[in-house]
């Protein structure tokens, strides 16, 4: 079938190639006084089949894009976007974006203009990840596509991220979160003097903070006298909050606060700031193993909520303590009375 004039063309390159079909368009004409007009052509791309090349040609004619920009890969878009975006967000968000981008490994060297909704959906369907991770993946890809549209790498109608379906998310080997039982908590109290890092588990249980929030807690944000500390960086807006310190674990906070000169409350044996992977692999798992317990750090957060619920603390107060979504921005100004209310609640467990 002959293509319309000015539409472009597809032809097969000689030899054995993985993508032998080349789609080209005429960029402009030059006037040669001796030979007449001369076409200046540019390549849209190289494709495995003729049909794919024709589809790319049709896509280009429907919404022409800058052919130089079209050479940019997913990796290059990510590098440019992250260089602009990362300085404006927290370290925990950066880690989340980096983890989400790892899912895109099969596409990193593919030209951004060639990535299809099917490609993005395939990543989601075959990642084996659960909904929270895939939500982060979808958010990241959406931001990359927005960046690509703004910088004329793709036309606006190529942004199909909203159609990525993550409703079928699920890892068949996923870990089901379970709160610590009463007997398990009692066992941790029994072991607290055997290894100082058992106290960290109890601090997590009796504050309800995320493990990242405790590992990143700086001493300057702790008020031991009034028994509270500030979480200044969190995964959610609701996570920015004042957290009451239970009388039961106050001695542990005092111990770690005075242990060394590290600016962070918790530290490694040599006084360094903890990275999550180091804490989890070197302390969390080895300490639970002899106790025959199988838990993740986030189970401490669920345990705190369960304990507060069991002693009839109202839902609003629980959300204030653990920083769950649902407390509005207008609720984040704390009065002295409210701090006392939170302390009274946390001391019940």
TrEMBL record:
Q: Does the keyword Amino-acid biosynthesis apply?
A: no
Q: Does Calcium appear among the keywords?
A: no
Highest rank taxon of the organism: Bacteria
Which Pfam families does this entry report, sorted A to Z?
Phage_integrase (PF00589)
What keywords is this UniProt entry annotated with? DNA integration, DNA recombination, DNA-binding
Q: Which residues form the Tyr recombinase domain?
A: 175-347
The record's annotation in InterPro entries points to:
DNA_brk_join_enz, Integrase-like_cat_sf, Integrase_catalytic, Integrase_recombinase_N, Phage_Integrase
CDD domains according to UniProt: INT_ICEBs1_C_like
Q: Which GO MF term does the entry hold, naming one? A: DNA binding
Q: Which family does it belong to?
A: Belongs to the 'phage' integrase family.
Query: How is this protein named in the record?
Result: Site-specific integrase
Q: Which organism is it from?
A: Agathobacter rectalis
């Amino acid at each position: 079938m002959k293509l319309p004039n000015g539409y472009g063309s597809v032809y097969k390159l000689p030899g054995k190639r993985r993508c032998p079909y080349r789609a080209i368009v005429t960029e402009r004409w030059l006037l040669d006084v001796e030979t007449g007009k001369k076409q200046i052509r540019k390549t849209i791309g190289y494709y495995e089949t003729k049909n794919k090349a024709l589809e790319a040609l049709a896509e280009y004619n429907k919404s022409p894009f800058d052919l130089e920009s079209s050479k940019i890969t997913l990796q290059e878009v990510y590098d440019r976007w992250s260089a602009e975006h990362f300085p404006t967000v927290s370290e925990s968000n950066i880690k989340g974006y980096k983890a989400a981008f790892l899912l895109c490994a099969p596409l990193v060297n593919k030209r951004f203009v060639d990535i299809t909704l099917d490609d993005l959906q395939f990543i989601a369907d075959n990642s084996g990840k659960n909904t929270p991770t895939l939500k982060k993946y979808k958010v990241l890809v959406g931001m990359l596509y927005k960046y690509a549209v703004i910088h004329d790498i793709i036309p606006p109608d190529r942004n199909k991220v909203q159609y990525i379906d993550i409703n079928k998310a699920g890892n068949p080997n996923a870990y089901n979160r379970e709160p610590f039982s009463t007997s398990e908590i009692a066992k941790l109290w029994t072991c607290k003097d055997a290894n100082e890092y058992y106290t960290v588990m109890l601090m997590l249980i009796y504050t309800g903070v995320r493990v990242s929030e405790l590992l990143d807690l700086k001493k300057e944000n702790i008020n031991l006298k009034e028994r509270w500390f500030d979480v200044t960086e969190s995964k959610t807006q609701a996570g920015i909050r004042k957290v009451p310190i239970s009388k039961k674990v106050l001695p542990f906070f005092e111990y770690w606060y005075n242990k060394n000169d590290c600016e962070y409350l918790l530290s490694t044996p040599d006084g360094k700031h903890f990275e999550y992977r180091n804490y989890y692999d070197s302390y969390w798992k080895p300490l639970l193993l002899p106790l025959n317990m199988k838990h993740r750090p986030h189970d401490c957060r669920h345990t705190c909520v369960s304990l507060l619920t069991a002693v009839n603390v109202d839902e609003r107060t629980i959300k204030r303590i653990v920083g769950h979504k649902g407390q509005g921005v207008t609720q984040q100004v704390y009065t002295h009375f409210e701090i006392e209310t939170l302390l009274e609640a946390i001391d019940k467990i």
